[in-house]
Design brief:
The protein is α/β, with parallel strands linked by helices. It has helices spanning 53-71, 87-106, 116-124, 131-141, 153-172, 183-189, and strands spanning 12-19, 24-33, 36-46, 75-79, 111-114.
């Protein structure tokens, strides 16, 4: 009697994306399975009214822990601080990133860091794309309705970090192919959906 191999369903993962910031920190949560990705949440941790730098770091830790406990992410994708700002700004940004990473470490969550240019390249095909272009692509790729979009681009930057990790790891997984969830594949399967100005 012939038997047929059962096709296993793609493993579901929850990816928490973080766009570090000392005044406004973005976050985005994706649920992925194979090449598919769905936004579960996005938002910002607004610290502009908190004057004390150490209190800000405490709030970041508290809020990131809340996200971890609320969504139980399997992995954290975080944007690396970029060069070009003054030393003090870099130091502050690095501290904020470190606190978010420490929260993930405390729950044994694997951490993946991506340079801003790598994230933009993965999402738009252009490492020098603007935040607005990244936001527009994230809205289309994840089918986010207008009413769920936020005025803070830090939120879509965080989603982009999570989506970049999704693309990177999906291609590396057995059966992931050489670009099943890639930008080129999206363009091929969705002709005419995007403006050529992006």
């Amino acid at each position: 009697m012939a038997t047929t191999a059962l096709k296993t369903a793609p493993r579901e993962r929850i990816i928490l994306g973080i766009d570090p910031g000392t005044n406004v920190m973005g976050y985005g949560v994706l649920k992925t399975a194979g090449s598919e990705a769905e936004m579960l949440a996005m938002g910002v941790i607004d610290l502009r009214r908190v004057a004390d730098v150490y209190l800000k770091l405490g709030r970041i830790h508290e809020r990131v822990m809340g996200l971890i406990e609320g969504f139980l992410p399997d992995e954290l994708a975080i944007e690396a601080p970029f060069f070009g700002k003054n030393v003090q700004s870099m130091l502050k940004l690095g501290r904020a990133q470190g606190v978010a990473i420490a929260a993930a470490i405390s729950r044994d969550i694997p951490i993946h860091e991506y340079a801003p240019m790598k994230i933009k390249q993965a999402i738009t095909g252009n490492g020098n794309a603007s935040k607005e272009q990244v936001a527009a692509l994230m809205q289309r790729l994840l089918h986010i309705p207008d009413e769920r979009m936020l005025p803070h681009l830090d939120a879509t930057d965080a989603l982009a970090a999570a989506y970049c990790h999704h693309l990177h790891t999906h291609r590396a997984m057995p059966g992931g192919g050489s670009g099943g969830g890639s930008w080129k594949s999206f363009l091929k399967n969705n002709p005419g959906r995007l403006r050529t100005t992006l």
